[in-house]
Amino acid sequence: MTRRTYVTIGAGQAAAVAARTLRRRGFDGRIVLIGDEPHPPYQRPPLSKEFLAGVDGEDSLWILPPKWVADNDIDIVTGASVARVDTLSGAVELDGGAPVAADAVLFATGGSARRLTVPGPRPDLVHYLRTLEDARRLAPLLTPGRRLALIGGGFIGLEIAATAASSGAAVTVVETDPVPLGRIVGPQMGELVAQLHRDNGIDIRCGAPVSGVRTTAEGVLIDIEGAAAPVEADAVVVGIGMVPNVGTAIASGLQVDNGIVVDAAGRTSVPNVYAAGDVARRFSARAGRHVRLEHFDNASRQGAAVAHAMLGRDAVCDEPNWFWSDQFGRNLQFVGTARGEPVIRGDRDTLEFTAFYFDGGTLCGAFTVERGEDIAAARELLGRTVDASTLCDDDVDLFDLVYDEEPELEAQVRT
Ligand SMILES: Cc1cc2nc3c(=O)[nH]c(=O)nc-3n(C[C@H](O)[C@H](O)[C@H](O)COP(=O)(O)OP(=O)(O)OC[C@H]3O[C@@H](n4cnc5c(N)ncnc54)[C@H](O)[C@@H]3O)c2cc1C
């Protein structure tokens, strides 16, 4: 029998985890990861945190240890872009170079930083942060006194702002919404994070969009709609989200609708073609619709689940949306969805607390600062009717609530 070949398009988080899972689950065929970046798979979260701050070097970023890659006979092709897949023949066609014949293909093409659309300044004064190259280019600007303007107050923008301010840079954040992060964690918690930034010297300007970015002899001027004066800076960092990389999927005839549409196991409508990670819009029974998530945990879990599907096994990835962020030495975590006014467990003033969100009487989400263990419990309690005052009582062990209703889960966790 000829050896089967499984190919991933993209060599990021989801592809790396899929490759690792395939080998661990006994796939003895050829595994080829094709990525258009000049690196083997690396973790992106440190790019706005430890790596950008210069605390950790590049060696800490690699997802698959080189010895494991060699021992497990994984082909990692770097600097190669896939143009399309002929889904009838299984040929993976590169932009230049011979096609690779595949028995199964995983689209794990991630996303690209959303570009600024207002009239722009000199390109060398504008920065984005999605790749290791972006981080290498941005890091030297994080010096005392350097004036940086962040356009976009989402999680990545705020992380860059926090890292830059901690390096001594003078940082201004410009956010269109009334409160940074408001659409993700709700206005109350967004305001609290904004205050953390203000307390650390960051100038946060909310509530109006940027209308233009001009270049001057000294740097850049950022015009904000309705503002009396522009923000002056030496450089601009744009953090306004990402767009899924769907060009190759479209060229291959896959169904694309804000991401590659897949079922709960990561299968597209074309046999032997799968998608996972930031680019995949998978069916979630939990949400009752297709969802596309842009977080590390999702990319990793989906990468693992899709590997099972490629091996003909059933493994559904339908975990709740979970992610973390680190800002000014504080660990923030969020799970589920934010709705309405949250109830608080812990001490909001000292920034050691968890906010719980309810949809009717049902727990639908939680946001924490410095209390990751609460999120682990909240994750299990999502979708359950929980008494708000019990959640807020710090004398109550949240895992008692989890196990009260799920003795089997306790048995699983404790064995
Ligand atoms: C700066 C930053 C900080 C982050 N911090 C956090 C965090 O704190 N917590 C969290 O939960 N998440 C965080 N994330 C998100 C997390 O890193 C992503 O969700 C994760 O990397 C997604 O993995 P992926 O494999 O889907 O895509 P990616 O990691 O983006 O990998 C996709 C790869 O495919 C390549 N590719 C695309 N098209 C082609 C093609 N046609 N041919 C070949 N290669 C192609 C891309 O260039 C890329 O290398 C952060 C992201 C960034 C950018």
TrEMBL record:
Stretch forming the signal peptide: none
Top-level class of the enzyme under EC nomenclature: oxidoreductase
UniProt cross-references to Pfam families, sorted A to Z: Pyr_redox_2 (PF07992), Reductase_C (PF14759)
Gene Ontology molecular functions: oxidoreductase activity, acting on NAD(P)H
Record-annotated Reductase C-terminal domain positions: 322-401
Residues covered by the FAD/NAD(P)-binding domain: 6-303
Entry keywords, A to Z: FAD, Flavoprotein, Oxidoreductase
Name of protein: Rhodocoxin reductase
